[in-house]
């Protein structure tokens, strides 16, 4: 059967995919922006968790674009790092891994950054992960507490912590690259020190532990009042976690923190991480000397309901 999808080169920098459905229902998706280092394929909106801070609340149905993603990855600019997100991408593990295998063969310079809840890898995946190439995928895996009950409550799924432990063991066995991600919240504020100890004792194979600020969109916006931790006036849980982790030789990073919300001695851990297409700066940033190094704010940031102590550096 002929494919319902086709590609349009809008210009040398943009690759779009469109369908043969009749107008006005014809969808078009921009898959790659060659000028941007932040290209992400949203491979599914289905998910098996309901995280309190989810920026992309799950949907029941799945629109399958793997064929198109694979073509786009093969046509991507040299040495592209392509994000893979959802939903939970590994709910479609077979297709996803097949795409990785094909792209790895044709475009060994292209690598992936996969955001996954880490619960869908089994021992049977180890061989395939090694064949795809462990240097080809950085796995962004969330862990919110070393206390199973707290982690499960945050992700809205009983048993999630135990499944995640098994998934992380598989990634460790495969020698995978892992970026452990922890959104700092009111719910896990008092757990961050214990989580730092857990990272050292149980997960020291990871490449980096990323402590992240909350994104005010989706469920994050809905649960903002009960979840957002104003680290511009309450940085102590973060500094304790960073100190413990750095002292033990594990890399740590602060994602999505405006630089002026971070005490001076910790700014070295806070790179600019908000993607260019969803980043903004505020009026007072015009007078700031640190703007070029600062990631600023998410486009959907609301200045009346967030950090209370910010200002130009
Ligand atoms: S004033 Fe703006 S640019 Fe400067 S550190 Fe704060 S958020 Fe960043």
TrEMBL record:
<keyword id="KW-0411">Iron-sulfur</keyword>
<dbReference type="InterPro" id="IPR013785">
    <property type="entry name" value="Aldolase_TIM"/>
</dbReference>
<dbReference type="Pfam" id="PF04055">
    <property type="entry name" value="Radical_SAM"/>
</dbReference>
<keyword id="KW-0479">Metal-binding</keyword>
<dbReference type="GO" id="GO:0051536">
    <property type="term" value="F:iron-sulfur cluster binding"/>
</dbReference>
<keyword id="KW-0949">S-adenosyl-L-methionine</keyword>
<dbReference type="InterPro" id="IPR024032">
    <property type="entry name" value="rSAM_paired_HxsC"/>
</dbReference>
<keyword id="KW-0408">Iron</keyword>
<dbReference type="GO" id="GO:0003824">
    <property type="term" value="F:catalytic activity"/>
</dbReference>
<feature type="domain" description="Radical SAM core">
    <location>
        <begin position="43"/>
        <end position="199"/>
    </location>
</feature>
<dbReference type="InterPro" id="IPR050377">
    <property type="entry name" value="Radical_SAM_PqqE_MftC-like"/>
</dbReference>
<dbReference type="InterPro" id="IPR007197">
    <property type="entry name" value="rSAM"/>
</dbReference>
<keyword id="KW-0614">Plasmid</keyword>
<protein>
    <recommendedName>
        <fullName>Radical SAM core domain-containing protein</fullName>
    </recommendedName>
</protein>
<dbReference type="InterPro" id="IPR058240">
    <property type="entry name" value="rSAM_sf"/>
</dbReference>
<dbReference type="GO" id="GO:0046872">
    <property type="term" value="F:metal ion binding"/>
</dbReference>
């Amino acid at each position: 059967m002929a494919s319902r999808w086709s590609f349009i080169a809008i210009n040398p920098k943009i690759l779009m995919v469109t369908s043969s459905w009749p107008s006005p229902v014809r969808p078009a998706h921009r898959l790659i922006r060659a000028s941007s280092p932040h290209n992400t394929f949203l491979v599914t909106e289905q998910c098996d968790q309901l995280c309190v801070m989810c920026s992309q609340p799950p949907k029941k149905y799945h629109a399958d674009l793997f064929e198109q993603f694979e073509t786009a990855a093969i046509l991507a600019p040299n040495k592209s790092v392509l994000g893979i997100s959802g939903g939970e991408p590994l709910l479609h593990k077979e297709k996803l891994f097949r795409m990785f295998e094909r792209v790895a063969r044709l475009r060994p310079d292209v690598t992936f950054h996969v955001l996954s809840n880490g619960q869908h890898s089994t021992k049977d995946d180890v061989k395939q992960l090694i064949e795809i190439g462990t240097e080809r995928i950085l796995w962004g895996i969330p862990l919110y507490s070393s206390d199973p009950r707290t982690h499960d409550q945050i992700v809205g799924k009983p048993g999630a912590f135990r499944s995640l432990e098994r998934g992380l063991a598989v990634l460790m066995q495969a020698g995978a690259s892992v970026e452990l991600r922890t959104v700092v919240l009111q719910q896990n504020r008092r757990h961050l020190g214990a989580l730092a100890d857990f990272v050292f004792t149980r997960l020291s194979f990871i490449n980096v532990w990323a402590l992240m600020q909350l994104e005010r969109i989706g469920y994050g916006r809905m649960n903002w009042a009960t979840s957002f931790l104003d680290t511009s006036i309450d940085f102590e849980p973060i500094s304790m976690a960073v100190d413990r982790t750095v002292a033990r030789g594990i890399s740590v990073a602060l994602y999505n923190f405006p630089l002026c919300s971070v005490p001076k001695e910790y700014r070295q851990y806070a790179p600019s991480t908000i993607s260019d297409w969803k980043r903004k700066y505020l009026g007072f940033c015009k007078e700031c000397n640190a703007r070029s190094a600062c990631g600023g704010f998410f486009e959907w940031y609301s200045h009346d309901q967030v950090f209370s102590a910010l200002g130009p550096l």
